[in-house]
Specification:
Bound molecules: zinc ion
Protein name: Queuine tRNA-ribosyltransferase catalytic subunit 1
CATH class of the largest domain: Alpha Beta
Strand order of the largest sheet: 4-14-13-12-11-10-6-5
Oligomer: single chain
Subunit structure: Heterodimer of a catalytic subunit QTRT1 and an accessory subunit QTRT2.
Structural class: alpha/beta
Number of helices: 16
Helix content: 40-55%
Low-confidence stretches: 1-8, 80-95, 98-107
Organism: Sarcophilus harrisii
Largest sheet: 8 strands, parallel
Cofactor: Zn(2+)
Mean pLDDT: 84
Strand content: 15-25%
Radius of gyration: 21 Å
Membrane topology: Peripheral membrane protein
Length: 396
């Protein structure tokens, strides 16, 4: 079954006959991105530890920019540099997406949220900055990213009570202000961000209201912030049940391999997370069985690559023993090599997921993945078993 629509970011594709998984193509102004897709997170126009050219070489076609960091630089300079794509100095096939209010949670200690917007102090010069919905869209319009995110009122996912409800309603009002402020709706796709915390009533209300707006895509926000996995997957599946089938669904802040596989089964198309790059900085390399802590003694004389099946530049050139030595000498090249591999791992995982959906064998892929990751499906986390069962993929 295939779907099509005329909106700039229209997606169409194949559905897993069993679960809610889908393989789509996201048509963006600068090209097409196959989904499900993992988007690495960048700051200051480049990836921490990896250049844009290297990302491109790994087959990465979409990554996150960062409004807050880029936005505190003069917007006119960014415009002169040709928008975000020019700033990244990569070819036009490369897409960027800006994270709007995404990192407000990490800023909450220093910020103040009012109906006007989010007020905070610039880490560059201490100046007070008001990030309003209009300002956030203006910055993203100047950056020229293919996808931009509404400014939302983010509260901690473990918070309960009236503040969660207030943030949900305010996010709807801010969505309307962002839609009105978008000067380039034909070239830049504004995504709404579903809020509502862990309360099914609030989240349903937010879904009902936001899906009335004709936005090109929807993000599921306010999760992955310390809530239980049971609460997490139930909010994800509730959201995908109510989101329009013909528009992309972006689950924010999710990047663990098991979570990616389960949330694709629950019907999500796009993901982002700092995890693969952050964990690389601790010498942790991602592999199909979990991870390798390369600083451990057991790797000192291990002359295999991180993953023999991986085609990334790190695995083609370096051994676990070499990386072990580099990590122990605090060589920053080691962090770079592991980061490159971890991004390659995420991209390859998403490719494998997508191929299995297209070939109508996604349920088998999920079972094989869990078997490899946990040794035995009996050791697979209970929440994942339950979530997969709910969409018709029993593990045993
Ligand atoms: Zn590799």
């Amino acid at each position: 079954r295939c779907h099509g629509s005329g909106t700039p970011s229209a997606s169409y594709g194949c559905h897993c006959g069993r679960s809610k998984a889908r393989a789509c193509e996201l048509r963006l102004p600068h090209g097409t991105v196959a989904t499900p897709v993992f988007m690495p997170v960048g700051t200051q126009g480049t990836m921490k530890g990896v250049t844009a050219a290297q990302l491109d070489g790994l087959g990465c076609r979409i990554c996150l920019g960062n409004t807050y960091h880029l936005g505190t630089r003069p917007v006119s300079l960014i415009q002169k540099a040709g928008g975000c794509i020019g700033l990244l100095n990569v070819n036009r096939e490369y897409h960027s997406q800006d994270s709007g209010g995404f990192q407000m949670v990490s800023l909450l200690a220093l910020s103040e949220v009012t109906e006007e917007g989010v007020r905070f102090h610039s880490p560059y010069d201490g100046a007070e900055i008001l990030l309003s919905p209009e300002k956030s869209v203006e910055i993203q319009n100047a950056l020229g990213s293919d996808i931009m995110m509404q400014l939302d009122d983010v509260v901690s996912s473990t918070l309960t009570g009236s503040r969660v409800e207030e943030a949900m309603h305010r996010s709807i009002r801010w969505l309307d202000r962002c839609i009105s402020a978008n000067r380039r709706p034909d070239q830049q796709n504004l995504f709404a961000i579903i809020q509502g915390g862990l309360d099914p009533v609030l989240r349903s209300k937010c879904l009902e209201e936001m899906t009335k707006r004709d936005v090109p895509g929807f993000a599921i926000g306010g999760l992955s912030g310390g809530e239980s996995k049971e609460q997490f997957w139930k909010m994800v599946t509730l959201s995908t049940d109510h989101l329009p089938r013909e528009k992309p669904r972006y689950l924010m802040g999710v990047g663990y391999a098991t979570d990616l596989v389960v949330c694709v089964a629950l019907g999500c198309d796009m993901f982002d997370c700092v995890f693969p790059t952050r964990t690389a900085r601790f010498g942790s390399a991602l592999v199909p069985t979990g991870n390798l802590q390369l600083k451990k003694k057991q790797f000192a004389k291990d002359f295999r690559p991180i993953d023999e099946a991986c085609m990334c530049p790190t695995c083609q050139r370096h051994t676990r023993a070499f990386l072990h030595v580099l990590l122990h000498s605090n060589n920053t090249a080691a962090l770079h090599h592991v980061t490159v591999h971890n991004i390659a791992y995420q991209l390859r995982l998403m490719d494998a997921i997508r191929t299995s959906i297209v070939e109508h064998r996604f349920p088998d892929f999920v079972r094989d993945f869990m078997k490899t990751m946990y040794g035995d499906v009996g050791r697979c986390p209970g929440w994942a078993v339950e979530a997969l069962q709910s969409v018709g993929i029993p593990l045993s």
